[in-house]
Amino acid sequence: MRYIFGLLVFTSLFSCKNETKSNTNAVIPLDEGMYRAWLPIQDNQEIPFVFKVESKNKLKIFNAEETILVDEIEYKNDSVYINLPVFKDYLVAKISNDESLNGFYVSPDRDRKVSFRAEGHENIRFPVKEKPSANIGGVWETVFSKGIEGDEYIAKGIFKQKGQKVTGTFRTTTGDYRYLEGVMDGDTMKLSTFDGAHAFLFTATVKDSTMNGYFYSGNHWKEPFEAKRNEDYELPNANELTYLKEGYESLDFVFPNTSDELVGLKDDRYKDKVVVVQIMGTWCPNCLDESKYYADFYKANKDKDIEFIALAFEYAKDKETAFSRIDRLQSKIGVDYPVLLAQYDGADKAKAQEKLPMLNHVLSYPTSIFIDKKGKVRKIHTGFNGPATGEKYTEFKAEFEAFITTLLEE
Q1: Which residues of 59-80 are buried (b: 16+ CB within 10 A; e: fewer)?
Q2: Helix, strand or coil for residue 187?
Q3: Of 295, 285, 314, 332, whose CA–CA distance to 70 is shortest?
Q4: If you classify domain 254-409 with CATH, what class do you get?
Q5: For 33-120, CATH number?
Q6: Which one of 93, 163, 195, 288 has the fewest beta carbons within 10 angstroms of its own beta carbon?
Q7: What is the CA angle 315-285-85, rounded to 5?
């Protein structure tokens, strides 16, 4: 009996010891509340953003007026995996007892990884040391990579400032840099955004009516920019940048859908219909904004003679993975129109143009091609002015709906 009793005690202690050890290896769930996160990058800079954990399986990322819901959070081994919505990028980190996170922001399709840090109970995006010496609210005529052959491009900075807080964006001829949020710290402007696909930082010194600074994208890209105040500045007309080559009046293609069935404009579904062809990628935030708008418009107008068809140019290494990306996009935001796989293993614009040789070039993701009921291309719109552009987004929607109405009434 003593032997049996001793054995039971030993077994019980051993089991408790193992259970304790197992518990110490368990992942600590994310505590609810605000977090300040940042990605350390070159030049001793960091790309900050803030998020709020609402439960162990749900959080929200904030960029100015934008709120991004993240509801795919997994705990594996000793780490938390925060799978970002629509896009396949993710955050992976170990959770410390002091509620800090240490890990990486990973973009698997692009083979990129950036260090990721976060601290709980923090909500200040940029700490400020000095009162602002300037108010940058208004319009700024901007040039990125000025004088660098092949890299120079123009943009329009549109900002609002209240006290030290600054919000706004840079519009380019191919789209916008999303919802930017930051501060004026003395004479230094600091703006950032993190949307699950892109991590941006803009920093510049502001003097009188000029600013000079740098744009950082993750830890892989840095370029200079300069800007001057110009309330009357406008970018080139987005409807004139991409066009059909001489001798062409129509568009033609055949690509597979996610069921691997070939689909083309000559299919019965598109005969005698107004068709909007969307050149896009599931990795592209501006394309996501456009897809949300098109998906809603299509659902509200299914009773009319209009169809949408998207051509996806994907970074995924193989067709199966690319199809899964497309399925994810369609299910997440409710895209009912076909999204075809035009290209995988890279989204090079020159190669994209080879798939659509009737175009002078593919300048931007996204690009929209408007086709009338007779199959003729009537307009090509390069880029997309998303919700972050405010008034310009409202103008785009009005112009889009008016033009579609014109085509439907013909």
Answers
A1: bebbbbebebebeebebeeebb
A2: coil
A3: 332
A4: alpha beta
A5: 2.40.128.120
A6: 163
A7: 85
